[in-house]
Every structure is written in structure tokens, then in C-alpha cells.
Design a protein that fits this description.
Elements: H1 20-30
Length: 33
């Protein structure tokens, strides 16, 4: 049983969360470094 909250559960942190795999694929598709 988990007692501590994870970042997804804290509204104030949601702006800082992202799907890393998606972001990397977007950069690769655009040809950026």
C-alpha cells in the first residue's frame, strides 16, 4: 500500500510532467538536436 503521493496526483506539479518518449520522438521527427 502506497502512502506517499506521486507527482501525477499533485495538481501543482502537472505543468512539469511530460511523456518523455513522446517528446523525444517529436524532436527526432523534426530533426532537432
Amino acid at each position: 500500500m502506497r502512502r506517499a503521493k506521486i507527482a501525477e496526483e499533485i495538481e501543482e506539479l502537472r505543468d512539469y510532467l511530460t511523456d518523455v518518449s513522446y517528446e523525444i520522438n517529436e524532436i527526432v521527427d523534426k530533426g532537432e538536436d
